[in-house]
Amino acid sequence: MPNVFSRSSKPYPIAVRAEGIYIYDEFGKRSLDGSSGALVANIGHGRAEVAEAMAVQARSLAFVHGSQFTSDVLEDYAARLAAFLNLPGGRFWAVSGGSEATESAIKLARQYHVERGEPQRFRVVTRVPSYHGASLGALAASGMGARRELYAPLMRDEAWPKMPKPDPSLSGEDDAERLRTVLEAAGPESVAAFMCEPVVGASDAALAPNPGYHARIEDICREYGVLFIADEVMSGMGRCGAPLAVRLHDDVTPDIVVLGKGLAAGYAPLAGLVASAEVYRAVMEGSGAFKHGFTYAGHPVSVAAGRSVLDIVQREGLVQAGRERGAQLLAGLQELKAQHPQVLNVRGHGLLLGVILGDPATGEAYPKPGLAERVATAARERGLLTYPGSGAVDGTRGDHLLLGPPLSITADEIVVMLALLDAALSVTPV
Ligand SMILES: Cc1ncc(COP(=O)(O)O)c(C=O)c1O
């Protein structure tokens, strides 16, 4: 009898090794990692250099508790990360996963206002749909009906006002103005923060607002004394063709940037947030401590992995490379859209791309489980991994594939990926 608590009742193949953009199972079948797992493996698999950096760190200092020590590797990495992201003075809070990181951001925003003498601020405005994580706070913040429903009795909806998703038919400024309406309805003096995914991930494949959106959001947040949190767990660290997706078009500096996934690119559990100097100062000059913490926060081996990944991203110019390969992949997807009517739309930035699937007759995406699952299965059988999802429209319906191979993918490998997707779409009509 197996003893693993599986993710679901379906059987999973056993992966035995991975290299570059390919994952190999126990029978030697190789699969092209077309979604980097869940948009994680930014530098590709099997990099011995990262494994070595982790081993060196583990031999010298594997663990210290954050209440007793900091470490050289954490201090050094925090400085390098803030420089890479161009967040001068930013303070890096390291945790183990994206949900811990968004949870930390929510709690930090709340504490910031209490420290400044505004204890009535507790609400966090987010969008529908959105995904900010699986832990209860992060899930309450998420506008994703399907993942949230079961746990709804444990959540207090009034704490999480919702704003509609970006509407690309509006100017970025007009689109962002809808935040003002939500703030006014909630009572702006009760709102601690607004949090959004600058380029949406699992809930609405690569949906992005128009230029001007984030700048106006930043202005409205400042006007109402609300913190602006950019959840870049998926979109950050070069995934969208820039270190931060929130700055793809606009010169903005969120109060808190949340990171994960690509940070250590799957080599170790690492996520975190970068808080502005002002947010940090309010806490440290107020009560003097962030009232929150995790045992494994700032784990030296995970941070060493993150530092080694950042070395590779910078040395190999992977942000720029991902941007170029993303343009190539998007152009190829546009060709597939012309050939396969069940592809309603393709979109995205850099190597965070979405393929929207549905019925061309009605223009509607299907209720789950639908086309995306079937296309993903057909692709998987042919050796291409994708990230199917639903959740567009109202947070419960809609079908899409997220595509996002490692930023290190080559132009020839993109051609292979497109051919596999083409074959999968050919056998999966509406
Ligand atoms: C935007 C965003 N935020 C937070 C999370 C949660 O991250 P994790 O699954 O590492 O807890 C995810 C995961 O998909 C995400 O895409």
Polypeptide structure, described:
By secondary structure, this protein is of the alpha/beta class. The protein folds into two domains: 15-46 and 317-426, Aspartate Aminotransferase, domain 1; 49-315, Aspartate Aminotransferase, domain 2, CATH 3.40.640.10. The chain has helices spanning 36-39, 48-60, 72-84, 98-115, 136-141, 145-148, 172-186, 213-224, 277-284, 300-315, 318-339, 371-381, 411-426, and strands at 15-19, 22-25, 30-33, 91-95, 123-128, 162-164, 191-196, 227-231, 256-259, 271-275, 343-349, 352-357, 384-385, 387-389, 399-403. The strands form three sheets. The protein has a seven-stranded mixed β-sheet, sandwiched between helices. The longest helix is centred in the last third of the chain and has 22 residues, at 318-339. Helix 3 (72-84) packs parallel to helix 10 (300-315) and helix 7 (172-186) packs parallel to helix 8 (213-224). Pyridoxal-5'-phosphate binds next to helix 4.
